[in-house]
Task: inverse folding
């Protein structure tokens, strides 16, 4: 009793905050998630300003892009999750059709066919980043958990079809993320640990198969370069060597904002896109990096909290997949920039300059918020 | 729907899901841990290593060329200096239409129209921000012409640089030499760290032989460059500051010469429109007071760079060979100028004596031969002693005693005066000349007949003809040795050098050489007296040149038959005749006692030593002694 008294007192005192919290609730926005995302994007803009050579024009275009992304989040947060679930198969099929269209007619950008020009240029593969996990979750929604073998076979097709289409554009990074999003759903759905381990074991011959038949020369080169970047210091190894120098020379506290010589003097390639993490590491040091990683972990943690508290299978699986895919983003980019994994074109989410992926990511967070709002509307 | 769901085991399903989430968190934590430990490895453990690499990326050392030492004459007057010159440069990235810009510059006459294609190619080859030199030297008029049009030429500008300049160009061209663009051999020879950033090096003369001392050591400055090598000067402190300390260049030493620029200029004027050489030496220490070769050239053409092919051809292919340093490389039959030395040899060796008279009928024949060796005076000198034989340059006297001295003894004495060997002067390219001997002939020829030495060859050797030849420098040095009664020094152009920073002067000691071995002082007295008679006795061959001199002077004329230099069939009749005339030689020293200057003059095709070369020698000595006395 006394406790509730105190609580009331606190709520009474914190009246404006209470109003704000109510407003967010009415807008179906998750406060902690929004706060963390704003913090992340703010920090990202700060780093980006240095990485683009203090160009306010580029900074502005990033702000506009972020605005669009947040709008996407807001719009999706308003959509009832059951509505989204019902429309999932159509989104998936539509996505597949567009992917095929891209392969047939798409614009070539950056040496690969990724863009489709229908009034606005966009990459259909971005849709699949959300459509694939949604489709997997939709499929599992009415089925018993853990999935049976027949279900697994169909899930494999749901995941594989768009992955192959995207990979053949070729866009390894997006294919990887799309597949990961789907696979995460399957794993969260209770795929037996034994099966996961044996699949992992199978991945070794699978990798050999990929190497021999599917991988492009430039992709092979990336892998070889990772193993020994010094073998070609001015060619393929250049990026990773310069990236490691930038990170290492940042030390514990960094060289200071706009003071990173590797970044500012353009030794670091792709410093405002894929390698922006190295700029952060050089200018803000290990401490700065840990702060950023903490924000990422908070966002992922919040996403998993929403997933655990979701009220049905579709919501749970989708929320878990969105959160963990976000982690995959962060991990692959940081591991790539620090030279742990081969260079795949995955930006540092919400920090790297440009990219349609930012809109997709924020749309994903909008879905997370919708799931979280939905929890309160229906009984467990 | 609600019904369907309620059938399923919600609790079980959620438990599986939460289990998987926990598993994911564990895996994610492990992966994140890997990244973080990688970061710790890079940023903490190996920090030093990467910090150093980043520094190495950022900072580039740029060589700073040292200032080349000056060349000063014996009174400290500047013979070679460094002056700013302006060159026209174009920065490709700042020029929209390079071809248009270049053709407009050509219209203004600032570049050659023929060079445009080459310049376009050059501007494409280098990095876009590196300047391309369009014209290595703009004169004042060109600078002002460009300056008023400057606004029409964005990306084109003139830049100052230091260029070697020789104020008295032609007068010192052969002695001081010139600097020019470094050759491949230069690049292979030099110490690359000292020469970082240097593009020019001494090519001839002292500029070449004292290259190392004149050049100095390159310094280094540190600049910040970006990944493409462009220098960055603005930006955040951490990017452009904290550079290592620069290393200042160490300037080259100033060379202090023995040359007297007034004498050089005078000698150059005296040889105007003539071919030949003048060398004047202080016999007391070997200091070369003047050394010129005529015709000369303007060494500034080479120093500035960008000399056109036509310009180069005009000097390189000139039949008068202005680039050829006759003073040390030209070899001439010494003719009668060796008579004083041979007289000494004859007296010292006992081949003749002071009172012996020989009847000169105008020619000489060897025993058992009818071949007449002619005297220059067809009617002959009549009965003549050795004093007169020198002063009147009687050939028959020397023909007569030649085989009594013998070629090998002639060789031994002439060599003592420094003929036949390089003098060791401090510029390169010196020829050794030739004093023949039986040994030399045996080694120099192939066939048995050629290897043999003939008496007739001794006869013509006695008047400095035949195989014998010498450089003007050798003759000047030998004349000095006559004046000092056998004391000899290695001829030199450099007396010392000065550190331009501390002002500290290093003086070189004169290098004394073995004295000429004539034991009887009377022989010196007599030969020097006979040389005085050449100029100051009314019967002397060069009395006309020496009669009015206020001091006593010794000399000896020489006339030698033409060989080698520029006998080209394409010349017209007059030209051929001119070039077939005898060379005129004159050697002399003054004052008679304690000589201060010894001079050798050679005028190619000058016909007569006593009439052409002697007045030149007198003018040199006159000037020098007058100013020397005035200074004292």
Result:
């Amino acid at each position: 009793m006394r406790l509730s008294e105190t609580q009331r007192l606190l709520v009474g005192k914190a009246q404006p905050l209470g109003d704000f919290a109510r407003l967010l609730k009415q807008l179906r926005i998750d406060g902690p998630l929004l706060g963390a995302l704003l913090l992340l994007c703010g920090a990202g803009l700060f780093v980006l300003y240095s990485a683009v050579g203090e160009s306010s024009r580029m900074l502005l275009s990033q702000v506009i892009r972020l605005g669009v992304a947040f709008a996407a989040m807001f719009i999706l947060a308003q959509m009832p999750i059951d509505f989204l679930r019902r429309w999932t198969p159509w989104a998936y099929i539509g996505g597949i059709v567009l992917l095929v269209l891209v392969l047939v007619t798409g614009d070539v950008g950056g040496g690969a066919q990724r863009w489709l020009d229908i009034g606005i240029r966009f990459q259909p593969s971005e849709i699949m980043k959300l459509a694939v996990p949604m489709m997997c979750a939709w499929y599992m929604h009415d089925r018993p958990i853990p999935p049976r073998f027949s279900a697994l076979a169909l899930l494999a097709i749901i995941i594989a079809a768009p992955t192959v289409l995207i990979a053949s554009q070729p866009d390894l990074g997006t294919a990887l993320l799309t597949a990961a999003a789907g696979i995460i759903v399957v794993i969260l759905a209770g795929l037996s640990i034994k099966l996961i381990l044996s699949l992992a074991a199978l991945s070794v011959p699978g990798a050999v198969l990929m190497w021999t038949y599917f991988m492009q020369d430039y992709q092979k080169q990336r892998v070889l370069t990772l193993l020994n970047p010094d073998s070609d210091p001015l060619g393929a190894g250049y990026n990773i060597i310069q990236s490691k120098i930038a990170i290492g020379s940042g030390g514990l506290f960094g060289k200071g904002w706009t003071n990173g010589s590797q970044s500012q003097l353009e030794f670091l390639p792709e410093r405002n896109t894929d390698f922006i993490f190295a700029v952060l590491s050089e200018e803000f040091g290990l401490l700065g990096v840990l702060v950023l990683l903490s924000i990422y972990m908070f966002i992922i943690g919040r996403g998993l909290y929403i997933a655990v508290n979701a009220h049905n299978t579709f919501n749970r699986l989708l929320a878990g997949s969105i959160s963990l895919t976000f982690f995959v983003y962060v991990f692959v980019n940081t591991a790539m920039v620090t030279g742990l994994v081969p260079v795949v074109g995955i930006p540092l989410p919400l920090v790297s300059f440009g990219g349609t992926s930012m809109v997709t990511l924020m749309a994903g967070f909008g879905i997370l918020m919708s799931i979280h709002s939905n929890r309160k509307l229906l009984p467990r | 729907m609600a019904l369907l769901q309620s059938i399923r085991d919600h609790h079980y399903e959620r438990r599986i899901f939460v289990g998987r989430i926990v598993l994911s968190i564990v895996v994610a934590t492990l992966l994140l841990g890997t990244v973080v430990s990688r970061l710790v490895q890079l940023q903490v453990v190996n920090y030093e290593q990467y910090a150093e690499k980043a520094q190495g990326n950022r900072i580039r050392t740029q060589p700073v060329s040292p200032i080349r030492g000056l060349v000063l004459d014996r009174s400290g007057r500047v013979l070679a200096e460094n002056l700013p010159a302006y060159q026209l440069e174009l920065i490709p990235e700042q020029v929209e239409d390079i071809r248009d810009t270049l053709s407009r510059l050509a219209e203004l006459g600032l570049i050659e129209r023929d060079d445009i294609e080459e310049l376009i190619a050059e501007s494409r080859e280098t990095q876009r921000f590196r300047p391309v030199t369009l014209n290595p030297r703009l004169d004042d008029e060109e600078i002002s012409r460009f300056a008023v049009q400057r606004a029409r030429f964005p990306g084109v500008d003139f830049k100052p640089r230091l260029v070697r300049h020789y104020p008295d160009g032609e007068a010192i061209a052969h002695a001081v030499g010139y600097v020019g663009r470094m050759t491949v051999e230069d690049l292979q020879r030099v110490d690359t760290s000292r020469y970082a950033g240097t593009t020019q090096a001494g090519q001839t003369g002292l500029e070449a032989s004292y290259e190392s001392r004149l050049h100095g050591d390159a310094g280094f400055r540190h600049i910040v460059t970006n990944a493409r090598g462009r220098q960055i000067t603005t930006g955040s402190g951490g990017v452009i500051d904290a550079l290592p300390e620069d290393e200042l260049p160490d300037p080259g030493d100033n060379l202090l010469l023995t040359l007297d620029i007034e004498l050089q200029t005078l000698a150059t004027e005296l040889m105007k429109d003539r071919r030949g050489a003048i060398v004047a030496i202080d016999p007391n220490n070997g200091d070369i007071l003047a050394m010129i070769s005529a015709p000369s050239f303007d060494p500034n053409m080479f120093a500035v760079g960008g000399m056109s092919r036509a310009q180069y051809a005009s000097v390189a292919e000139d039949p008068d060979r202005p680039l050829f340093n006759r003073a040390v490389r030209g070899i001439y039959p010494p003719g009668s100028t060796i008579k004083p030395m041979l007289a000494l040899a004859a007296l010292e060796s006992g081949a003749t004596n002071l009172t012996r008279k020989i009847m000169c009928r105008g020619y000489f024949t060897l025993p058992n031969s009818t071949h007449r060796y002619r005297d220059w005076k067809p009617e002959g000198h009549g009965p003549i002693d050795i004093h007169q034989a020198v002063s009147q340059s009687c050939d028959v006297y020397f023909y007569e005693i030649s085989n009594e001295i013998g070629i090998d003894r002639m060789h031994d004495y002439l060599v003592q005066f420094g003929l036949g060997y390089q003098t060791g002067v401090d510029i390169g390219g010196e020829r050794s000349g030739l004093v023949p001997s039986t040994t030399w002939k045996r080694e120099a020829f192939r066939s048995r007949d050629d290897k043999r030495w003939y008496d007739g060859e001794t006869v013509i050797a006695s008047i400095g003809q035949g195989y014998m030849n010498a450089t003007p420098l050798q003759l000047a040095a030998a004349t000095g040795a006559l004046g000092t009664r056998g004391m000899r020094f290695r001829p030199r152009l450099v007396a010392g050098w000065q550190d331009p920073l501390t002002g500290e002067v290093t003086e070189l000691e004169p290098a004394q050489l073995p004295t000429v071995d004539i034991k009887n002082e009377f022989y010196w007295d007599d030969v020097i007296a006979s040389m005085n008679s050449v100029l100051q006795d009314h019967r002397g061959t060069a009395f006309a040149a020496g009669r009015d001199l206020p001091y006593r002077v010794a000399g000896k004329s020489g006339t030698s038959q033409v060989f080698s230099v520029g006998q080209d069939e394409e010349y017209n009749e007059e030209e051929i005749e001119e070039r077939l005339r005898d060379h005129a030689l004159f050697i002399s020293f003054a004052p008679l006692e304690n000589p201060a200057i010894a001079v050798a003059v050679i005028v190619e095709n000058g016909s007569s030593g006593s009439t052409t070369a002697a007045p030149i020698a007198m003018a040199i000595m006159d000037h020098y002694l007058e100013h020397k006395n005035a200074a004292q």
User: Anything to note?
Assistant: The domain at 62-257 of chain B is CATH 3.90.1310.10 (Penicillin-binding protein 2a (Domain 2)).
